[in-house]
Amino acid sequence: MKKAVITAVGHYVPDNIIPNSYFESRIETTDEWIRTRTGIQERRFAPDGMATSDMSVLAIEDCLKMRGLDKNEIDFIVVATVTPDHVFPATACLIQDKLGMKHPRIWGYDISAACSGFLFALETARRLVESGGSQKAIVVGADKMTAIVDPEDRATCIIFGDGAGAVLIEASDDDSVGIMDASLHVDGSGFQHLHMKAGGSAMPATHETVDKRLHYAYQEGQHVFKSAVKSMADATMDVMQRNNLTGSDVAWLVPHQANLRIIEATANRMELDKERVMINIQRYGNTTAGTIPICLSEWQKAGKIQYGDNMILAAFGGGFTYGSAYLKWGIK
Ligand code: COA
Fold first, then answer.
1. To test the ligand 1 pocket, which listed residue (219, 225, 257, 286) has its Cβ within 8 A of the most ligand atoms?
2. Predicted pLDDT at 19
């Protein structure tokens, strides 16, 4: 069996920086409240007309540039997003067309697993690459959250931002690095606490659903917070125990950037110093499926990750979905 190795990373965040002060004149909030409750100082908003596929294309181009790889060598593309350009077709199709990828066997699709989406997509691509079904796969995590966040919902609109990250996964005969393991879960009983009420087959769009603001993300923050703290830490400990890892074996925790307090709770459970946790929530907020690949790309470019580093990726999101992955870094 082949090993699936991340061999390049890339990301894109919009230029438009939105500081916490932006919200002070629009909703009842303060910079101080947002910083202390979430750790967020600013986030990026994509301009009108820029869709999730457009951000993804820029992230993929950044990723392929790192590897010096021709786009036509990609044979599989999986996109994790809850903000697809359209209900159908899949954003993967639009990305393939916009990039002009011409591999004779390229195929792909979208995965809907909210903030855990990147981990779920990564595991899907890993299995495909390991089994020989793909030689070079692109995994994208991208969301334009401003498309589905209610600007009048003060507990939600301050959290989210827009952004995209992408990784290239290649098949390798060297099994000393690569994606080693993953522990992924769904718990649909969490649906009620985090979802979008209208726009799907359960409640198709009508004038009334628009008037009632039902096409925005609905969130019960406290419940989501508590579930995220427990589930992310449980999944992380599970994958560490299965692979006989302790905190001191882990070079980097790469957590989904939902709330600084959730990140800190996960790191504490792993007995990991903050210096070994990738944290950029203060600059980007929660970009949903984008958070983990954006972190990987930024840290790689800053030269902070060493070849062979043990890394634990962890996420929690709507569904509920949650999980963690263990990988040995394979970029020199
Ligand atoms: N500014 C000021 N006050 C606000 C506010 C804001 N932006 N948003 C909410 N509040 C108020 C609430 O209305 C509430 O007021 P009340 O006590 O008068 O009712 C008070 O702050 C406390 O609300 P609470 O929900 O208990 O705050 P919190 O400490 O849990 O923080 C979240 C709210 C949303 C930041 C936090 O629950 C969270 O991060 N949850 C997880 C969300 C998440 O990660 N979602 C993505 C899925 S991965």
1. 225
2. 98
pTM of the entire structure? Answer: 0.97
Question: Could you tell me the distance, in angstroms and rounded to a whole number, from the CA of residue 222 to the centre of ligand 1?
Answer: 7
Please count the other Cβ atoms lying within 10 Å of the Cβ belonging to residue 7. Answer: 21
Note the pLDDT tens digit of each residue in 76-126. 999 999 999 999 999 999 999 999 999 899 999 999 999 999 999 999 999
Same fold, 3-175 and 179-328: yes
How many of the other CB atoms lie within 10 Å of CB of 108?
A: 24
Fold (topology level) of 3-175 = Peroxisomal Thiolase; Chain A, domain 1 (3.40.47)
Question: Tokens in use for 279?
Answer: 């944290």
Asked if residue 266 lies in contact with residue 232, where contact means CB atoms within 8 angstroms, the answer is yes
- Kindly state if the Cβ of 224 falls inside 6 Å of ligand 1: yes
Task: Compute φ and ψ for 227, nearest 5 degrees.
Answer: -65, -40
Torsion, Cα 264 268 271 273, to 10 degrees, reads 30
Active-site residue (options: 11, 20, 256, 295): 256
Q: What is the CATH number of domain 179-328?
A: 3.40.47.10
Q: Closest ligand 1 atom to the C-alpha of 159? A: 35
Q: Where are the domains of the chain?
A: 3-175, 179-328
User: In the 8-state DSSP scheme, what is residue 216?
Assistant: S
**What would the two tokens of residue 235 be?**
């999944």
